[in-house]
Amino acid sequence: STHSTHPVSYYHHAAGGKVLLGLKRKALRIVVTGGAGFVGSHLVDRLIARGDSVIVVDNFFTGRKENLMHHFGNPRFELIRHDVVEPILLEVDQIYHLACPASPVHYKFNPVKTIISFLKTHRFATVNKTNVVGTLNMLGLAKRVGARFLLTSTSEVYGDPLQHPQVETYWGNVNPIGVRSCYDEGKRTAETLTMDYHRGAGIEVRIARIFNTYGPRMCIDDGRVVSNFVAQALRKEPLTVYGDGKQTRSFQYVSDLVEGLIRLMEGEHVGPFNLGNPGEFTMLELAQVVQETIDPNAKIEFRPNTEDDPHKRKPDISKAKQLLGWEPSVSLRNGLPLMVSDFRQRLSGDRKEVGA
Ligand code: NAD
Ligand code: UDP
Ligand code: UDP
After folding, report:
1. pLDDT (tens digit, 9 = 90+) per residue, 48-73?
2. Which residues contact 17 (CB under 8 A, 6 or more apart)?
3. Looking at the CA of 186, which ligand is closest?
4. Which residues are catalytic?
5. Best residue for ligand 1 mutational test, from 41, 98, 123 (most atoms within 8 Å of Cβ)
6. Pair 248, 282: CB distance under 8 Å
């Protein structure tokens, strides 16, 4: 049962019951923090399309107005420039909390590019503040108005996992003082806060642990592997494989993730739920798929790997299959071309970037 064939004839109401779409369901007021970003903007598209009102809260740290411009002028859409580290008063039914500097160059020391240490420290602090104070504020908001709260956590809570594939019951193997711990530990703390507000204040919460996701609107230069390889192939630059390229990741297309997030929010289960595509690839295999999709002559160049890089990552999604009726339906080979055409368009629109 894949979601693409799943009937949209019913809908899980926020209160939990199934309501026929034919009968009129109450439109919801939903806030999406980080809604100007890659995943957030696709989520907003779906929520608007099904008839709800959406408020996006975003400080444009990595997000872009372009991702949401097609909703400007829609009375059911509102965009607020705001940093979630500061408190905010809103009246809503649901909160999707995505705000977080999520891309590696924003939290990880990258030996390939030199980042001065002041900037680095400042950015690391920003990640932790967003994850801890930002999540606390959104939970405070959920508590005050009785909204349901969904946290987008990450597979990084498993660290460099000693269990493969990763099941939600695994507690992880995280270095608390490493270069990527601001992200890993920040998200772990966000999960803790979420469960504390659930147990202590009775807030309805949902936790998603998202595995590597790709698709249109990804930041072109944020340093993640899929966006790097695709941009490099289109620019006729060599694909940069870090380390020996034998480390693995499992890549999920963004529409599959958005379907999973909505099912999680509307369902009855707190989670945490792994949301990811179990198809596992080494970075060399990924480079091959990119070559096949864009340019068979693209060169591969090896670079030193970053510190604390997880060796393997692959989600066990039995729990989401069983309790949410969800599983991904877009394979890497089918999803990649959709991202490539978006990148091709954006790169050709920016002559500086293609070096013309
Ligand atoms: P993104 O960088 O495209 O989006 C994050 C958004 O949050 C951006 O629009 C950014 O401007 C905004 N933001 C950051 N700090 C903020 C702050 N303090 N206040 C308000 N807005 C702020 O990243 P994404 O890939 O869309 O990620 C969305 C969420 O999913 C993140 O929480 C991320 O940790 C999680 N996630 C993503 C992946 C993935 O592969 N894309 C994997 C695991 C988890
Ligand atoms: N908060 C917010 N919007 C609200 C309600 C709360 O931003 O509508 C913030 C609030 O400023 C606080 C955090 O959420 O920093 C946690 O709120 P809570 O009421 O749980 O804690 P308290 O304010 O009692 O410390
Ligand atoms: N990676 C790579 N070349 C790049 C960027 C990343 O080989 O240009 C590798 C990186 O070392 C890691 C994997 O790809 O092993 C995934 O990296 P990414 O930053 O996309 O995601 P994460 O490490 O957070 O899973």
Report:
1. 999 999 999 999 988 999 999 999 99
2. none
3. 1
4. 183
5. 98
6. yes
